[in-house]
């Protein structure tokens, strides 16, 4: 059986940026998005919420 992958959403992409930042030992202050925005929240979720 082959699995069908759905395309990554914007939130998925930004969340993975946050995960990558955590793995590279960045700080929460390195979040490049405007505080309170949807991108900022998704990045924070990826970073570790």
Molecular structure report:
The chain is an all-alpha fold and 49 residues long. The protein has a domain at 9-23 and 38-48. Helices cover 49% and strands 0% of the residues. It contains 2 helices and no strands. The chain has helices at residues 10-23, 38-47. The protein starts with 9 loop residues before the first helix and ends with a helix. The model has no long low-confidence stretch (mean pLDDT 93). Residues 1-49 are annotated as: Disordered. Residues 12-22 have a biased composition (Basic and acidic residues).
**Which band does the percent of strand residues land in?**
under 5%
Structural class by sheet pairing and helices: mainly alpha
Major sheet attributes: none
Helix fraction, binned, reads 40-55%
Give helix and strand order, one letter per element, not per position. HH
Question: pLDDT under 50 segments (min length 5)?
Answer: none
| Spatial gap, N to C terminus | 35 Å
Count of DSSP H/I helices: 2
Mean pLDDT: 93
Shape: flat
Number of strands: 0
Radius of gyration, in angstroms, nearest whole number? 12 Å
Give structural attributes.
2 helices; single chain; 49 residues; 0% strand; mainly alpha; 49% helix
């Amino acid at each position: 059986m082959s699995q069908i992958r759905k395309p990554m959403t914007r939130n998925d992409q930004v969340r993975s940026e946050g995960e990558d930042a955590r793995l590279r030992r960045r700080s929460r202050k390195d979040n490049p998005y405007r505080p309170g925005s949807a991108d900022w929240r998704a990045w924070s979720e990826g970073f570790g919420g």
